[in-house]
């Protein structure tokens, strides 16, 4: 329905031709200015950081060793990769399985489904600092994991769980019922249908969600400061502390000693996020076309 | 054999579906169990309405931080909502299709920029700007509001846009048939019809703004005293937790967790009103 309205409103040049009435003129100028301002904000932020940061990028920054002379971002970058793998390994199976339960197994409108929906909605609204504090109280203190990659990874995996659940659910809903019926018709059971028919056709949508989740992990700071801690080295094990790139960035800019390095780190962070963002919408775009 | 396997997988799926319930349950238990005792030790009124936060003197009043959060959020809403809703109007009713395909990803990108990068941008651009051209030392309430106003833009734009697009096209046609111009129909017919969705976007924006932590810490000054004006520093609830959690012990630490409890309750109320508004718009 929205597309039919769009064609009416946007494609009819004669209807939308400029009216001379002053109120219409003011309204038109207002929406133009607002849209221009929004785009300008994006360009100013990204442009400024690239402009100030790219000249500060140097090979030293990618040294394996962090020390007070050379605040290398390489350990933080490696930690970010470890953290991402860790949280994704925990959250993706849980998220996909629970979406499978909600769409393929549960009766529509059952009480459990309602409760799961409400709790997932609640989780996605909780600010990251609350996750961080919960991680500190539960994983770090109660489970005695200390400041560790493991505590950070578990905290982040709870944080991205609702995102993965939602995107997977949408992807599963987009698979036509005729696929399932065809599979049952050939004698396949429920589980087999899910794993060999439904999941493969929903893969691009699920993948787009996972990549979006990776973007959130890469950008997260508040949930990690008090769970995985701020040690600037590559951790020996999953039970030692390590800072990710965002935490590194925060530490640099709040210390204020290495502002040029902070700019360079911001460049790396922003490029990572832009890349993830593009890959995600590219994979998501694939399904809407097919 | 096959039956058993099916049953087993079903149980696994069921268990996974329950993880989000378990997670919410655990978060509530741990926050409340660690925070509520502190509130009762300090006294509900002393805690919520106390004007002094001086942990070294055992004074734990979080009213300055509650007000700080509310003021900064209100400022962000004042800045972000008009720009966001107007941009949503542009995207859904004024934007040519080709341009739309370029602007929409840009807004997605705006949502994807990490808050620490926003904070850094605020620190190196907005803070000096406010200091030089408006006044104060730069790390003030106004700066925090402007930065948060930028950060909530994508939330407001996306939710409002889908609300505006959900309005049936015959509303627009009716407006045009009565002789209203395109702009007038858009603003006086379609926008009122999308009202509850637009409100929902504002509520969601409030939630984002009140929960934002790192960006605010980097630009707001963080003085733990009653907010004194637009050009004075403030501390928000979120900032209070992050800044002092690193060295707090005993009652001080519990008071910080209690601060998080207050924030959590704010967020729960906001979430609830968002889902109520959303239900109405459908």
Order of H and E elements of chain A: HHHHHHHHHHH
Percent of residues of chain A in beta strands?
under 5%
Tally of DSSP helical segments of chain A? 11
The backbone outline of chain A, from C-alpha atoms, is globular
The second-level CATH architecture of the largest domain in chain B is Orthogonal Bundle
The largest sheet of chain B has its strands arranged as 1-2
The quaternary state of the protein chains shown equals heterodimer
Secondary structure: helix percent of chain B? over 70%
Q: What series of H and E elements makes up the topology of chain B?
A: HHEEHHHHHHHHHH
Low-confidence runs of chain A: 1-8
Biggest sheet character of chain A = none
- CATH superfamily of the largest domain in chain A, by name, is MetI-like
Q: From the 3D coordinates, which CATH architecture of the largest domain in chain A would you assign?
A: Orthogonal Bundle
Shape summary of chain B: globular
Write the layout of secondary structure elements.
The complex is a heterodimer of chains A (290) and B (282).
Chain A: H1 2-10, H2 22-53, H3 74-105, H4 111-125, H5 128-142, H6 149-173, H7 177-185, H8 190-219, H9 222-225, H10 245-255, H11 259-289
Helix pairs in contact in A: 2-11, 3-6, 3-8, 3-10, 4-6, 5-6, 6-8, 7-8, 8-11, 10-11
Chain B: H1 2-42, H2 44-49, E1 53-54, E2 59-60, H3 63-94, H4 97-112, H5 115-133, H6 141-165, H7 169-177, H8 182-193, H9 195-211, H10 214-219, H11 237-245, H12 250-281
Antiparallel strand pairs in B: 1-2
Helix pairs in contact in B: 1-12, 3-6, 3-9, 4-6, 5-6, 6-9, 7-8, 9-12, 11-12
């Amino acid at each position: 329905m929205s597309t039919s309205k769009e064609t009416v409103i946007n494609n009819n040049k004669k209807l939308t031709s400029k009216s001379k009435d002053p109120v219409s003129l003011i309204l038109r100028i207002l929406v133009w200015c607002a849209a221009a301002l929004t785009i300008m904000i994006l360009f100013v932020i990204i442009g400024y950081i690239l402009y100030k940061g790219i000249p500060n990028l140097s090979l030293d920054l990618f040294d394996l060793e962090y020390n007070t002379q050379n605040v290398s971002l390489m350990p933080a970058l490696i930690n970010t990769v470890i953290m991402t793998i860790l949280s994704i390994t925990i959250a993706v199976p849980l998220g996909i399985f629970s979406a499978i339960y909600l769409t393929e197994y549960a009766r529509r409108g059952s009480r459990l489904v309602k409760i799961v929906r409400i709790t997932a909605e609640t989780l996605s609204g909780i600010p990251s600092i609350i996750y961080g504090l919960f991680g500190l109280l539960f994983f770090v203190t109660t489970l005695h994991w200390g400041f560790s990659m493991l505590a950070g990874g578990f905290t982040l995996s709870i944080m991205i769980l609702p995102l993965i659940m939602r995107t997977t659910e949408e992807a599963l809903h987009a698979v036509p019922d005729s696929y399932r019926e065809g599979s049952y018709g050939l004698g396949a059971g429920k589980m087999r249908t899910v794993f060999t028919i439904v999941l493969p056709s929903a893969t691009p949508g699920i993948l787009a969600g996972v990549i979006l989740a990776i973007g959130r992990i890469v950008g997260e700071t508040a949930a990690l400061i008090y769970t995985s801690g701020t040690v600037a080295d590559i951790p020996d094990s999953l039970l030692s502390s390590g800072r990710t790139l965002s935490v590194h960035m925060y530490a640099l800019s709040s210390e204020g000693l290495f502002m040029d390095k902070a700019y360079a780190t911001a460049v790396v962070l922003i490029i990572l996020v832009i890349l993830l963002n593009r890959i995600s919408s590219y994979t998501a775009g694939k399904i809407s076309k097919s | 054999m096959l039956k058993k396997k099916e049953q087993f997988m079903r149980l696994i799926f069921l268990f996974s579906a329950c993880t989000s319930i378990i997670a919410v349950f655990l978060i509530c238990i741990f926050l409340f169990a660690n925070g509520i005792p502190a509130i009762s030790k300090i006294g509900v009124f002393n805690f919520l309405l106390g004007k002094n936060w001086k942990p070294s003197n055992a004074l734990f009043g979080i009213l300055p931080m509650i007000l700080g959060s509310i003021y900064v959020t209100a400022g962000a809403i004042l800045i972000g909502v008009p720009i966001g809703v107007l941009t949503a109007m542009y995207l859904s009713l004024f934007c040519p299709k080709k341009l739309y395909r370029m602007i929409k990803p840009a807004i997605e990108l705006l949502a994807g920029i990490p808050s620490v990068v926003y904070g850094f941008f605020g620190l190196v651009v907005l803070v000096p700007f406010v200091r030089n051209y408006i006044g104060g030392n730069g790390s003030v309430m106004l700066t925090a509001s402007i930065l948060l106003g930028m950060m909530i833009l994508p939330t407001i734009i996306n939710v409002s846009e889908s609300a505006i697009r959900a309005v049936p096209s015959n509303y627009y046609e009716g407006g045009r048939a009565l002789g209203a111009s395109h702009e007038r129909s858009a603003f006086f017919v379609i926008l009122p019809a999308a009202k509850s969705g637009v409100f929902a976007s504002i509520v969601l924006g409030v939630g984002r703004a009140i929960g934002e932590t790192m960006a605010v810490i980097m630009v707001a000054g963080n003085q733990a005293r009653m907010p004194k004006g637009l050009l004075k520093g403030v501390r928000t609830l979120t900032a209070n937790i992050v800044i002092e959690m690193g060295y707090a012990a005993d009652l001080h630490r519990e008071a910080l967790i209690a601060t998080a409890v207050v924030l959590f309750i704010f967020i729960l109320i906001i979430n609830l009103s968002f889902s109520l508004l959303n239900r109405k718009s459908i």
